[in-house]
Amino acid sequence: MDKERLKYVLHEAATLALPAIHRRAIEVPLASGKVVVLVGIRRSGKTFLLLDTIRRLVASGVDRRQIVQVSFEDDRLHPLRATDYDLILQAHAELYPELAGRPRYFFFDEVQAAPRWERFVRRLHDTRAGGIYLTGSSSHLLTREIATGLRGRCLSYEVFPLSFPEFLDFRGVVPEPYSPASEARVAAALDDYLETGGLPEVVLCEPALRPRVLREYSDLVFYRDLVERHGLTNPAVMRELLRHCLASPASLLSPHKLYQDFRSRGLTVGKDTIYRYLGFLEDAFLVFPTPVAERSLRKRAMQPKKLHVVDWALGYSYRPGAMIDRGRKLENAVFLHHRRHRDDLGYIAGTGEIDLVVGASAPEVWINTSWSLADDETWRRETSGLTAAGGPARRVLVAREIAGRTAPPGIELVDAWRFLLEKPAG
Q1: Could you report the per-residue pLDDT of 161-171, keeping only the tens digit for each?
Q2: Widest CA span of the chain, in angstroms?
Q3: 399 in the Ramachandran plot: left (φ > 0), alpha (ψ -120 to 50) or beta?
Q4: CA 397, CA 354: separation in Å to the nearest integer?
Q5: Cis bond leading into 175, ω under 30°?
Q6: What contacts 275, CB < 8 A, 6 or more positions away?
Q7: CB of 335 within 8 A of CB of 416?
Q8: Where are the domain boundaries for CATH 3.40.50.300 in the chain?
Q9: DSSP-based helix, strand, coil % in the chain, nearest 5
Q10: Which has the closest alpha carbon to 274: 241, 250, 306, 244?
């Protein structure tokens, strides 16, 4: 890291106008006394949440020059060495000597690109910072680095693509209670949401540009967060695995069947590699493997996991959107509706199938999801699973098209758009 180039980076960040920002459901605290960490897939809005936090700090009276803003993926800072971090403090002090003695607020973007960053951040927190805010696109920030390096000094937030209420806000749709016309607009907006996905830039860009933007996102994650980050020597297998996962939301995942399929197509791969690569997809926040809702760890390990994706629209890079089942998209959206708030989720397979169990070890809600309930066989299948489920948990059947059905006793029948506007359980 070169100190003179670093001064250009810091000065540029302190003088650029802050962009107009759509507010999100997450509001980052300004005076928590903790290191605030935002993690999630690239382009989910983490950087804009940082910029919104900067805007709020400035509005509260903080001088913009007190804010030290650095992206560790800025090529002007490379090569990055763990011994170089003090250059950030030196460069800022030399740029703004008149601020000596005043607190500084550190905003570090994509910290997983910086080696041994957690030691530097811990020292800042313990000695001189008015506030520290980090973003990253690796789940290790929630596990290994934070658990071992920051030891209770942080507040962590997962940042997902837009929820359905946030999508409505971006679209300027305001639900009005007891208004059939408003309900029709919201239902139509749900169809738009399930087609467009929730990545903020995709939602805001022109429809004709969306396929190109989604392809760019998919390639960026593939090369930077998978191939480069993990030094993959078999990128063709990872590409096929990514294709399979993103184009198959809310589906059961069998690594053994994937292994057989890949081998039949001439791909040289071992089972251990498939398991390892699936872990890399999870680390990059691309997929959420959901276990069967069993208390027995052995049964949970033996049963296949249900695979949900962070945004079904990313699958359009591999399969046309019309070929990805809309009912699966809806089920994935229902999963994410709860996953944004908690991770103790599961499913039940077999004759009494339950798409989503909220509170996997002590069920609070049983949820089945269907696009349309017009078909009698679909109606029997979805209600029988909920009827068979034991215990006092709430039973909910979510559908885009209820088709005039009346719920049997003990089961709530809820329009999909209405359910996705509810506050999730827990």
Answers
A1: 999 999 999 99
A2: 75
A3: beta
A4: 10
A5: no
A6: 255
A7: no
A8: 3-159
A9: 50, 15, 35
A10: 241
The predicted pLDDT at position 208 comes to: 94
Distance CA 58, CA 14 (A): 11
Q: What is the pLDDT of residues 291-301, one digit of tens each?
A: 998 877 777 77
Question: What is the reported pLDDT for 290?
Answer: 94
CB contact burial 30-60 (16+ within 10 A = b; e otherwise): beeebbbbbbbbbbbbbbbbbbbbbeebeee
Is it the case that residue 147 has pLDDT exceeding 60? no
167 contact partners, CB below 8 Å, separation of at least 6: 189, 192, 193, 196, 198, 203
Q: Comparing C-alpha atoms, which of 240, 241, 274 is closest to residue 256?
A: 274
Q: Provide the token pair at 397.
A: 């059947």
What pLDDT does residue 23 have? 86
Residues 6+ apart with CB under 8 A from 196: 167, 202, 203, 210, 313
Q: How many CB atoms lie within 10 A of CB 131?
A: 25
Cα three-residue angle 170-175-176, rounded to 5 degrees: 150
CATH domain 3-159 topology: Rossmann fold (3.40.50)
Asked whether the CA dihedral 208, 209, 213, 219 is positive or negative, the reply is positive
Give which of 39, 306, 321 is closest to 160, Cα–Cα: 39
d(CA 287, CA 241): 11
Spatial CB neighbours of 302, under 8 Å, sequence gap ≥ 6: none
Q: How confident is the model over 378-409, as pLDDT tens digits?
A: 999 999 999 987 778 899 999 999 999 999 99
